[in-house]
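Standup notes
- HV: blocked on the assembly model, inputs below
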Amino acid sequence: MSTFAFLGTLEIGFIYGLVALGVYLTFRILDFPDLTVDGSFTLGAAVTATLIVAGVNPYLATLLGTLAAASAGLVTAWLNLRFNILHLLASILTMTALYTINLRVMGKPNVALIMEPTVLTPFEGLGLANMYLKVGFVAVCALIGGLLVAWFLNTQYGLAMRAVGSNKRMAQANGIVVNEKVYVGLALSNGLVGLAGALFAQTNGFADSTMGIGTIVVGLAAVIIGESLFASRSILVIVLSCIVGSLLYRVAVSMALNADFLGFHASDLNLITAVLVALALVFPKLRNEWKAKRAQEDTL
Amino acid sequence: MIRCENLHVTFNPGLPTEKLALRGIDLCIPSGEFVTVIGSNGAGKSTLLNTIAGDIRTTQGHIYFTERDVTKLSATARTKDIARVFQDPLAGTCGNLTVEENMALAYGRGSRGNLSFALNNKLRSIFREQLSRLNLGLEDRLESEMGLLSGGQRQSVSLLMSALQPSTILLLDEHTAALDPKTAALIMDISSQIIAEKQLTVMMVTHSMRQALDHGSRTVMLHEGKVIFDIAGQTRANYQVKDLLNLFAQARSDGEELDDDKLLLDA
């Protein structure tokens, strides 16, 4: 793999690290499988790109893109909490609606940002090659995001959110307003994913109506890979392992695509993804079975 | 003080499965009193407890804490006054959080969670001190995952958690029913200690007539959603389980026998 390709892999890995953080908040912390992210990734990108083209400051545009995506999370939470629609279904409904909304926001299937200013523009005069700058910027974003999420989950409010995902009845008996935590959790999660979309659009130079497809699987892959490699109870380690999981996932995908003897094409990405996620899911189980077997043999 | 005024609760009103769970309960528990509630399955004991806690809405009637009408308050809002311990040891704690995290949640009961760290060394030393009262060695396991503890240990921690914040009312819902006799006795012991120490107003639902007579200062029996007898003081002190059974038979005008095996077995 060339240096250029490797840096590209890291860049995408860090961006999707933010997605992984969002997916971790819903799937693991709130126990709320949320597929909204397929739409909110694109929404973050679409809003940001459209605003930048319209002449809005890229930082303000990114903030607004993030907020738009966060509000998509609120819609899913509302459908689930107010009308008792199954969480999975509520999120699929929002995701479906977002496809149309994203097209409306952009007014066309894609928006190019090639010559537009981006969040990177202020740093371009520092003499760093563009590809290093991009990786550095998204790495800092992902790490700050990770540290903030870890900090948040260790606060009283964050702990209450973890309790809601773990045992609603206990949470309620201890005076925690369950619904509020779900709203806030989904808004945070989708906000992080929207931020990832906004950064993706600016580093890759476009927003596209189909760019969000499969976001949830990639995010989940990162979370699961991270979890199976770093078994830890520390929130900070778990959160950072989501980002590492995202990087490893990208490296694994690009190695699979680059290994000539495997004969994969770029269009085989989804199959590779599915296989990688399946492996990451199966691996911890097999490891436990081996351990149990060995322990049994030792005692015999 | 808890005051229930003509409480009615109907499940599935208007449907073929309609059930009149509570049919006019009038009950006043003065501050600092420890009431035990007994009754056969389906008598309405747990419904009454859950209605006071706010999990179940009243169909008719009012609930007052001291002089405040709380009938319309949510369960969450009522946690300012109420601490609870559930029957299921798994229900009162979060299995995938640590012991100290669970205790921190209980410590924050009634106050809004804010963005300061949930745990600090001051809290840890409070928790350690509390846990050492149990003599289960849990004070050295603050960072263990709750799910790794046994049912009895989890229930003990739940009990401690219920007393971490000042509350005036403690609701115990058959909280020793799922435990082995030795652990149950330990839990009952700690309960009595905490109740005496904090001078709590307590309502304990139990299946065991023995337990109902041995603890607290007043016993109420429910049947088909109504209070059928309510004894306290010297009368109660002289009572044995068989007297309770007689009283039950008398209270039922049709002379129906108590047919709940569990009630008799536990007697």
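- HV (later): unblocked. The longest helix of chain B spans residues 181-198. The CA atoms of residues 170 and 182 of chain B lie 23 Å apart.
- Next: hand off to the docking folks.
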